[in-house]
Amino acid sequence: MQQSAVAIGDAGGGLGVGCGPGARIAKFGQNPIQQSAVVIGGADGGLGVDRGLAVRIGKSGHDPMQLSAVAIGGGGWCGLGVDRDRVLDGQVSAGGTLSPGSLRDPTSPASGRGQEGGLPLGGRGLALAGASTHCCCMTKVAALPQRAVLVIEGEDRTTFLQGLVSNDVAAATPGSAIWTALLTPQGKWLADFFIVADGNRLLLDCERVQAPMVLQRLTRFRLRSKVTLGVADGLQVYAAWDGVPEVDALAVPDPRLPEAGWRLLSAVPLVTTASAADWDRHRLALGLPDGSRDLEAEKTVLLEAGFDELHGVSWSKGCYMGQELTARTKYRGLIKRRLVPVAVEGPLPAPGTPVLSDTIEIGTMRSGQGQMGLAVLRLDKLGAALVCGGATLMPRLPAWLRQANGLPHD
Questions:
Q1: Residue 326, H or E segment
Q2: Residue 94 and residue 96: Cα distance in Å, rounded?
Q3: How many H helices and E strands in the chain?
Q4: C-alpha–C-alpha distance, residues 157 and 154, integer Å
Q5: Would the pLDDT of 30 be above 80?
Q6: Looking at CB atoms within 10 Å, which of 24, 166, 255, 256 has the fewest?
């Protein structure tokens, strides 16, 4: 398979494209800081070159005919994921054939000649007309295969959900999302999910293992409501943080914390710059619960898991299933334990391992990774080192939890 190469230089170097082996593109232009180059390979990917450093780039997707491309830094350009007939964040003509002048700098009406191998524009390559000039190289984007998407359509979709979940469904407007929970009639947690408005439908970003249960329970309450419920098999869930993602997807800010970043729903695979494990470490550091990994079905009370501070409960909407206990725990101050981040010294305890203080059980370990995790702990024991299995735990309370509850600083 032929390889194509795209190089981006400074204003003096211009833009170029060439066909051939292209295993490496020479530095381009005079300013060593404003250089960025890409080689596009076949199923095995290619090599990206930035400031003289070669970086291995994997293929974009599972189709062995797909190509992949990433521009690493330099001059405010960002990476592009492509296939034979399409460029994300740009355009390409059918079959990927270039026409003269279709490669251009969006900030300048003129572009230079290609320098790779002395070849002019032409043949098979990429058309970058209309490509973004916003660099997203620092933004982390991770696929979350453990998430699934449910879809609710019909004229009663908002009022139908309004009486079943803890948050105000009407606040899920285009460009925004809400985080909410489904409770038992006794007010105990069953599932939580994000609700995203997409035209005439609502999309529920939920745990994949819980999707069948959530769909079954919602269907049970449909009665005469004019709604249809189903699984959006074609949509994949991503998380993005440390910047604004420049992607062709349905993107909404994570409603829990600004530092949590963005939720992305896409019908096509996106180029990722981080792993699901990277996202897990990020949300653990922020103290964000991850569904059934941190909460116990028919046992956890929402306010123990931070749903109030993390904007997962509306106190002004009408009645919903489980509202009575949720309101009582808030207004009577009945919360005696919380889900909090902990630093782990020693082997990471398994979920459910008892946490001890002077041989007295005061909580349980929940999810974790490496030397950090979340644990459900009594509020009066948050200031001391605790024992869990063969490890020592030290509570590390995030700012959002300390400030909202008047708890002591670390």
A1: helix 323-331
A2: 5
A3: 5, 22
A4: 5
A5: no
A6: 24
Structure tokens at 97: 């054939």
CA atoms within 13 A on the CB side of 388: 34
- Which conformational region is residue 116 in: left (phi greater than 0), alpha (psi within -120 to 50 degrees), or beta? beta
What's phi and psi for 221, nearest 5 deg?
Answer: -100, 5
Encode burial over 38-75: b for 16+ CB neighbours within 10 A, e otherwise: bbbbeeebbbbbbeeeeeebebbbeeeebbbbbbbbbb
* CB neighbourhood size of 333 (10 A): 9
Give pLDDT tens digits for 175-188: 999 999 999 999 99
Structure tokens at 370: 């490496």
pLDDT in tens, 336-356: 999 999 999 999 999 999 999
Give the number of residues written for the chain: 410
Residues in Cβ contact with 18 at an 8 Å cutoff, skipping those fewer than 6 apart: 4, 5, 114, 115, 116, 117, 119, 125
The whole-angstrom distance between residue 317's C-alpha and the CA centroid of its chain comes to: 28
Sign of CA dihedral 322, 313, 263, 364: negative
Residue 279, classed as helix, strand or coil, is: helix
**Residue with token string 């459910």:** 352
Distance CA 69, CA 79 (A): 7
The token duo for 342 is 């902990």
Q: With H, G, I as helix, E, B as strand and everything else as coil, classify residue 45.
A: strand
Considering only CA atoms, which of 185, 230, 223 is closest in space to residue 204? 230
Residues 66 and 83 sit within 8 Å (Cβ to Cβ):
yes
Least confident of 114-118, 161-165, 169-173: 114-118
Q: How many Å apart are CA 22 and CA 200, to the nearest integer?
A: 47
**Which pTM does this prediction carry?**
0.68
* 119, two tokens: 């070849």
Q: Can you spell out the DSSP letters for 178-219?
A: EEEEEE-TTS-EEEEEEEEEETTEEEEEEEGGGHHHHHHHHH
Amino acid at 160: F
Q: CB of 262 within 8 A of CB of 244?
A: yes
